[in-house]
Design a protein that fits this description.
With 116 residues, the chain is of the alpha+beta class. It has helices at 39-73, 82-106, and strands at residues 6-9, 15-18, 23-25, 31-33.
């Protein structure tokens, strides 16, 4: 699994985005190593974010399968309601899901790296 990029800000004001366990040398000569971040914390966050995405995908698949089966088993005219169902999905569920994920992302821990 590929992890998210880590924002590293040097004391001189320079900013860079690194993958986990990468090193970066700033223009001012300072070196920063993201492997100082505890691996279990970092990968735990990555697993949690993946789980959030899979929850949304699973809910969409379950809803689509249920609606599709009802449409084919009960009445095919129910397929005409599918765009309304999808609009409800994007108007009601997805904003709540995004809000929950963004809130969690804002509350993630931050680490103070030591320069090398």
């Amino acid at each position: 699994m590929k992890g998210a990029l880590i924002t590293v800000k040097c004391d001189c004001g320079e900013t860079n985005y690194l993958a986990y366990s990468e090193t970066w040398q700033c223009k001012c000569g300072r070196r920063w190593d993201t492997s100082q971040i505890p691996a279990d914390e970092y990968w735990g966050i990555m697993r949690e974010m993946r789980r959030q995405r899979l929850i949304a995908i699973g809910a969409a698949l379950a809803l689509s399968l249920t609606f599709g089966l009802l449409a084919f088993l009960v009445a095919q005219r129910l397929l005409l309601l599918f765009p309304i169902l999808m609009a409800g999905w994007y108007i009601v569920y997805m904003p709540r899901w995004r809000r929950r994920v963004r809130q969690r992302a804002r509350n993630l821990p931050s680490w103070q790296l030591r320069q090398e």
